[in-house]
Input
Amino acid sequence: MNIDYFIQELKKNLSKYIDEIKNIYQCDDNSALEYLNLCNNLLIEFKTLFPESKEIGIIRAPGRVNLIGEHTDYNALPVLPIAIDKNIIIIFSPVNDSTIRIYNHDPGFEYREFEISENTKPYETGDWGNYVKAGVLWNKEKGKKGFNALIYGDIPSAAGLSSSSALVVASALTFLQSNNINPDLLLLADELAKAEQYVGTMGGGMDQTISLLGKENKALQINFHPLSVKEVVIPNEICFVVINSLVKAPKTKNARLKYNRRPIECKIALDVVNKYIVNRFNSAFNYSFIGNLVKSFPSFNQNFINDILDNVLNKESYSTAQIVNILGIDEEQFKDKYLLLKDGSYFDEPHDGFKLRQRFQYVIEEGLRVSRAVDALENNNITLFGKLMVESYFGARDLYEISTPEIDFLVREALKCGAIGSRLTGAGFGGCVINLIYKKDAYSFLEKMKDLYFFKYIPETHPEISVNKNIVDNYIFICKPCRGAGLIFS
Ligand code: GLA
Output
């Protein structure tokens, strides 16, 4: 559409666009008006940055909150996230050459420009432009058009709400739209999950899939290898409250190594178990994901897990020497198969060893919890859903070791203040807690938790973090399941 025409339209016929916004974000008239004003301001900003660009489109891609199923995606076990009303918005205009030119509305992120070419190298680790590159450069076809773009985002970064994947998804859709390509969303989600590994994190496919396929009022059970989704209706009497611990969990830098340690440990644990299964069942089959193992044993249950835990994986951590011995390979083969990172360096043996049993046990139990949690929602068994959330948190804290003292405090207090369930959401090592609340209790829950955490705990334990009373609603909010990514006002 023509940018001048659309700016005029928003001035004259604002009300015409309110319904679309209300449907996407599941919000009221006032919030819809705020979004429209924001779009208007972004359009004006875009016009100043790219006065020559007349034909524009607007893409949005939401962040997500995962209700249950953490660190299961890269193990081919299911997850249960919702898309939220915080998102990345891109105003763009296709260009005739293959250059991508991007400004960020936030002046903290500098202008970036690159060519769509197989010779384009990543920016330095941690650079925001790498997420745009990941969203564009996975497409290997030649002769594709670039775009001019202004990017805006309101997903708090490093908070476990997938701001980075939303940027990858929004960039990919902008690229495809600029080249008039209508993607199959499931295939695209699969591609983008692989593409995001460009930034060096060995993540799974949850974030890209929910950002692309999220549904109003529904959670999605996402299954992997092969990727498929199932919509799960959220009972009307409950809601989910997100609380940001304000402890940043950036997936770039050091936290990326902490994150990558988990997929590495899972892969090693699986191969130790594979070895046992080959001997015990006389099978020649090697499972490539923990999830495939679970799926191929229809009677996979607690007894089976206990058998493996008791007979195969030690409680104590493993050293490289021990693993090499069990797997019957040499140290070089071990490093190349399990420890090689995207940037060509090797992951070092952790000072406390590889915790194979703990990681394996957590992942298997968490995968089974997701299936039970979906049944619970479908049968309106809210109490059971809450109980599973809490079990998931204990597993994440004690076996997967991805919690923090702040998250522990929030979960403990939330359960005292009326939450039916509470757990950390996202990769962990900081970030957010998600709480299951009856709608009727939401107001008092929000008030109590604001007071306890943002006005008492944080000032006492983290005086360096300043909590602005006026924007505390940005740190603790009810999140409604929203629509997945796409063009708006097309
Ligand atoms: C990050 C990754 C996801 C998933 C979660 C943990 O968000 O990007 O793929 O592994 O952590 O559940």
In short: The mean pLDDT is 93. The radius of gyration is 23 Å. The first helix runs from residue 3 to 12.
